[in-house]
Amino acid sequence: MQEYFYALADAIAARLSGDEGFVANFSGERSHFVRFNRSAVRQPGTVTQNYLSLSLFRGRRHGDATITVTEDREEDVARIDNALATLREMVASAAEDPHFLVSTEVRSTERIAPDRLPTPDDAVEGILAAGTGEDLVGFYAAGPMYAGFANSFGQRNWHAVNAFNFDACFYLRDDPAIKDRAVKMDYAGFAWDGPEFSARAAAARDKLALLARPPKTLAPGGYRVFLAPAAMEDIMGMLSWDGFSLSARRTATTPLLRLGNGETFSPLVSVTENIADGLAPAFQSEGFISPDRIPLISRGAAAECLASPRSGVEFETAHNGAAAHESPQALDMAPGTLADSAILAALGTGVYMGNLWYLNYSDRNACRMTGMTRFATFWVENGVIVAPLNVMRFDDSAYRFLGRNLIGLTAAREWRLSTDTYESRSTRSMHLPGALIEDFRLTL
Asked: How big, in percent rounded to 5, are the helix, strand and coil portions of the chain?
């Protein structure tokens, strides 16, 4: 696909005339997927799709188009010719874009990650073995994902990674009095480790047995809680929603405005955009290269913003090659010192939260979030899980639960690869610890 994309880029370059320039972005995947229900395969299949986004420009006037790449050279070149004809008409009548900026410094790069994925048959065999005797519901997706960039200045970039993601639940069944109780589990990465997957599945099944106990309902109030890495993914996903954006900070729409103005989180909190170790490409759609690492929060204090080239022009400042949406693509939160084996003992009496959902901001300016506990949230007494917890809503500010109320972070972290498959598989990732917090506010 790399050679094929570069050949298409050369075909575009050969068709330019006068002072025309172009930027082309390629995205593609070859994915195996399997849907499971009641511990059986219900829908296997494959998806192969490739797209080329083309921007034609003259000065600050530009037009954009996207074509489906068929891998038939004659057909694809014909589609490029049609797109160029349309774009020339658009550019001729387009107004100048004052924030338009493309990279003119040629910085060609290549990253091709090794393929260490299991065969689909091996993955399915392991999943079915883990679900024996249980009601396992889930979705497995795996395979290579591609990204490419080319422009009329001769720059060529290629990015190919191989990853898998298994997103699933073990449901409690065979008791009509018990409904909608499940333990969420997931496993994602670059190489399948059978023993690790089996250990995760076993831990999920152990928690499933606890769900059969009579549930506990808590009165609203402040509680000591442990947020597992999956729950932290939901929290950090909310903070990534304009939290680290230069544009959002300059327009005072970021939920972390107070952090940018000098308020701090706990010194335990350090967050980095870690492109070097993630799945996302280091180049963005205009051809600029992101640094391997960008510090976003350093020991609780605001550090850099994610600044796209357009924001750099608009706000007359340097950019760091961020994508247009200025959201983290490879968020990395520094670990703490709490051992996994000591989590329940350190929690003592309180709430173990496996994951959350329906999050939103209840007060964006105060970075106050609300959301619901989800599957496998437990009440813990004296370091022992004693009962599942009925669904609760939380409403609290990140300046509290990641600030003065943050007790500690786990030493072990989990790779949280995005399970999004809207239009295509996502290359976003997070590397997160769990968090022990006191006085976390549950409202109803």
From this structure: 25, 40, 35
Those residues whose C-beta lies under 8 Å from the C-beta of residue 62, and which sit 6 or more positions away, are: 55, 56, 91, 94, 97, 100
Residue 437 contacts residue 406 (beta carbons within 8 Å): yes
Domain spans, the chain: 2-210, 221-442
Could you tell me which CATH number the domain at 2-210 has?
3.30.2290.10
Q: What is the identity of the amino acid at 168?
A: A
Collapsed DSSP state (helix, strand, coil) of residue 27 = strand
When pLDDT is cut at 50, 70 and 90, the band that residue 422 belongs to is confident
- CB contact set of 184 (below 8 Å; sequence gap of 6+): 168, 169, 204, 230, 354, 355, 374, 375, 376
pTM: 0.93
Count helices and strands in the chain by DSSP H and E runs: 10, 20
Name residue 51's beta-bridge partners: 27, 68
Phi, psi of 316 (to 5 degrees): 55, 55
Distance (Å, rounded) from C-alpha 306 to C-alpha 168? 32
Question: ∠231-234-235 over CA atoms, to 5°?
Answer: 90
**By percentage, how much of the chain surpasses pLDDT 90?**
92
What would the pLDDT profile of 41-99 be if each residue is shown by its tens digit?
Answer: 999 999 999 999 999 999 999 999 999 999 999 999 999 999 999 999 999 999 999 99
